[in-house]
Amino acid sequence: MRRHPWLLIFLCLTVILPAGASAQTSGSPAPEPAMHDGKSIAEVARQLNNPVADLWALDFQFNRYYLQGDVTDRTRVQDVLNFQPVLPIHLTNEWNLITRPVIPFVFSTPDFEPGKGWDETSGLGDVAAVSLLSPAKLTSGIIWGAGPTFIFPTATNDALGQGKYQAGPAAVGLYMGKDWIFGTLAQQWWSFAGDGDRESTSQANIQYFIQYLFGDHWQIGMTPNILIDWKEDQENRFTVPVGIGIGKLVKIGPLPVKFTAEVDYMAIHPDDFGQHWGIRFQIIPVLPELFKDTLF
């Protein structure tokens, strides 16, 4: 099963999601609680699309990428599970600080060694973390935030990371309407320390999101990640995906849990070697708020 962990995610989506949905509408005479930490379930579903929402959540994101290019004679597969807890803190009545670490567990990734050819490796990748300062109150549907972002050389194998400490700015801006949500979260990193034998880095990740919300806490849209490696030549610099996905929030016991699935096609991709298709599954339990009071 090491090569096919996505089967486990698929089983979770096809078994738990319908079970959770049916639990809301059948059986018990008592209706589902309408609130979670003072927010309606509809508002929780809406705010889970906001990168700077004040919701404590655990985001388990499984990605399968299909990689192709001039340096390989066939499609290669990469399987990665990103654990992305969302950790908001109320600094004051006017400002929130939202920290979002990304811890990648690589089940399998292609690894080319000169003289040996293609192999596969697995392990922990480089950990990233972004902290965004954002206004606590919504103004005319426009939300923004800004702060620093970091990458740490935690990879257990050279093929799984870049061996460099990296830092840079991050910013998010989005519009949250009643039914439509769209915006962008952009991050840029430059290396400043680390393994002296590894190349310096300059790279960006721009996640754009377009979501339409409709009945019974469903949504349809996309949240792809544009990748830019400024150190590469023009033919290998950009990965620009477009996609389509669907998601739903259900109640499982006392917790709201969101399930999503998305397929992305990389309309622009590196010539030599890079992502051409991607599949993403997410399971996002929403936790009770751990710190309700402001720090200052």
- What portion of the residues fall into strands of 2 or more residues? over 45%
Q: In which range does the helix fraction lie?
A: under 10%
**DSSP helical segment count:** 2
Topology pattern, helix = H, strand = E? HEEHEEEEEEEEEEEEEE
Please, what is the average pLDDT?
A: 89
Cα separation of the termini? 49 Å
- Compute the gyration radius: what is it? 20 Å
Major sheet attributes: 14 strands, antiparallel
Unreliably modeled segments: 10-33
Shape: globular
Structural class: mainly beta
List keywords for this structure.
single chain, 296 residues, mainly beta, 14-stranded antiparallel beta sheet, two-stranded antiparallel ribbon, 2 helices, 16 strands, 9% helix, globular
Q: Can you walk me through this structure?
A:
- This protein is mainly beta.
- A hairpin with a 7-residue loop joins β10 and β11.
- The strands form 2 sheets. Strands 3, 4, 5, 6, 7, 8, 9, 10, 11, 12, 13, 14, 15 and 16 form a 14-stranded antiparallel sheet that branches. Strands 1-2 form a two-stranded antiparallel sheet.
- The radius of gyration is 20 Å and the shape is globular.
- The termini are far apart.
- The protein is built from 2 helices and 16 strands.
- It has helices spanning 6-25, 41-47, and strands at residues 35-36, 39-40, 57-68, 76-90, 95-113, 117-124, 127-135, 142-152, 164-176, 180-194, 202-214, 218-222, 225-229, 238-252, 255-268, 274-285.
